[in-house]
Amino acid sequence: MKRREFIQKAALATAAIPAVASASSGKKIRLKMATSWPASMPILQSTADYFAKRVGEMSGGAMEIKIYHAGSLVPPLGVFDAVSAGQIDLYHSATYYWSGKNSAFSVFAGTPFGMVDNEMLAWMRFGGGLELWRELGAKYNVYPLLGGNTGIQMGGWFKKPVEKLADLKGLKMRIPGLGAQILSKLGVNTVMMAGGEIYLALERNVIDASEWVAPALDLSVGFHKVAKYYYTAWHEPASTAEFVFNTKSWAGLPPEYQAIIEVASQDANVRMTAESQARNAPAMRDLLKQGVEVKTFPADVMAACKKALGEVVAEESAKNPDFKKAWESYSSFLEEQKDWTKLGLGRYLETR
Amino acid sequence: MKRREFIQKAALATAAIPAVASASSGKKIRLKMATSWPASMPILQSTADYFAKRVGEMSGGAMEIKIYHAGSLVPPLGVFDAVSAGQIDLYHSATYYWSGKNSAFSVFAGTPFGMVDNEMLAWMRFGGGLELWRELGAKYNVYPLLGGNTGIQMGGWFKKPVEKLADLKGLKMRIPGLGAQILSKLGVNTVMMAGGEIYLALERNVIDASEWVAPALDLSVGFHKVAKYYYTAWHEPASTAEFVFNTKSWAGLPPEYQAIIEVASQDANVRMTAESQARNAPAMRDLLKQGVEVKTFPADVMAACKKALGEVVAEESAKNPDFKKAWESYSSFLEEQKDWTKLGLGRYLETR
């Protein structure tokens, strides 16, 4: 990992710094943005499209963001390296994809049993979260901005119900990130595979279970045709998407364009939450009509997962000071927030 | 009401249309914005301040919004009329203040047992809510934009606990809007008074109970010193604030400035939710430490309130076609959303 980073940094020093540099000359600013999503994908690519459109409108056409969908210029998961090396100006992707580079990214992505969207926003904007994230990004020559929050993601699709802790033993499940680290400790064989491969793997019993996103995107893949049990949320309560600039591209922008981009990113961020809400609700009704059974993991499973999270956090904190620092900020903010969320929003949902 | 509106419209025809008109000449655009809040008020005035600052930054200083705090140019609740008549360009205020002008505004403000913030955002941005609101605004020569959502507000402060429905009979409570109409049907003497008067009225037993906002703003007033019981939310789950332009002021802005203002308003909108979340959580901890008892209204009280809401809605719908139209859109969207919110977010909060 270290060697690779060194090579990236060396590459950056000689990389052509892109069109932003022309800003100071008063010419049109053209930015290249790669995304990790296919064209026309709701919630994810739609957020990137909206952002680019708004930036164009607000600058009266003076700033133009050209979008490169997954694979059209950079591989879907190659966007971080391409921006870090200054080959393109920015990308739109999901933060947890980079936890292999530095486990601290998984904290900014949202964690199991962690903050819900409003808590995450409060941490990012009023609790120092965004500053910490940018401090981490600076080590990789990138400058992150909020790029969307999906809100609640579901616990995943299972072919057989999980009635007790022992049912997890030997289960083969596709799940990434901290959720996977937790389930591994409980005997699950966790695997990673790209989104497009999951359906067939479930159908052919290569895996027994998989998480994906939430009702709208899950319905469009058709998981309900190959797995009947749909579990409620625990491991991704508020997953973060991001617009991430190369630091030199960012620094080269005049202040009014930086302001336009930052405000547009914050608008796009909440628009993703709104679009998720708007699309998930009717999709869930549709899934229920098609016979999907919604279940919540039993208390002993959740208790074991919480205990395992504590172990994972202790291990990562010992290995990685960046993780430790991010986790301490995140978890102490959550500790302060969660009683109010339960008393305010939680009680209201019970009352309504 | 009708006569007054006629006079306003007549006045508008001759009112000087403000500085926006200078935009086409390429000069600096100066906009006058009145607010309903005192200077330095967190959550409410801070949102207006943030919006004005961001608009200035994004336009590179070409657009300047001058803020007039409550009473400094226009009375706090006179902002709607002043903007409607074209005396100033825009205001920042809360939507439920105008339900006396047209009861349909109370729907866009958020209703008892109604949508939570993400549902409201989904309705506004993806469910036709904002378009309907602007259709209503056009009747008053105003163009509304999102201006903040407080998220969950609390049910209010009570000197004695409400243990059963009969305890409401004869209770004197300060509460506005649809919440007041509901409680009136259950025998509560509802009264309205400005924020600054509530504390003394409670202290001197002029009233037995009052709602205000949520922990952060409630703590700063000090209600916990004169009423011990703090009830959880039911009547204001997601109260809307608004930036509202005079329609001619809005139409006079070049498209890039309209885009800057719209995106800034959407960023400011969610920033208020984040600021509320960030401030309410520690304030609630503080209140609990000071001996406040948090209670939830008993099931029979909530059932009676839901029944009364049905009656209020039927009455208003019969009287006011604007209300009927807004309610039908709002309530059918909520009906589609609420099961997902409970299954996704609600179950997660129970699991966490």
TrEMBL record, chains A, B:
Pfam name, any one: DctP
Any one cellular-component term (Gene Ontology): tripartite ATP-independent periplasmic transporter complex
Signal peptide coordinates: none
InterPro entries: DctP_fam (IPR018389), SBP_TakP-like (IPR026289), TRAP_DctP_sf (IPR038404)
Domain of life of the organism encoding this protein: Bacteria
One annotated GO molecular function: metal ion binding
Gene3D superfamilies xref list: Bacterial extracellular solute-binding protein, family 7 (3.40.190.170), Periplasmic binding protein-like II (3.40.190.10)
Binding site for substrate: 153, 174, 211, 236
Sites where the protein binds Na(+): 212
Protein name (database record): EXTRACELLULAR SOLUTE-BINDING PROTEIN, PUTATIVE
Source species of the chain: Wolinella succinogenes (strain ATCC 29543 / DSM 1740 / CCUG 13145 / JCM 31913 / LMG 7466 / NCTC 11488 / FDC 602W) (Vibrio succinogenes)
Lineage, uppermost ranks: Bacteria, Pseudomonadati, Campylobacterota, Epsilonproteobacteria, Campylobacterales
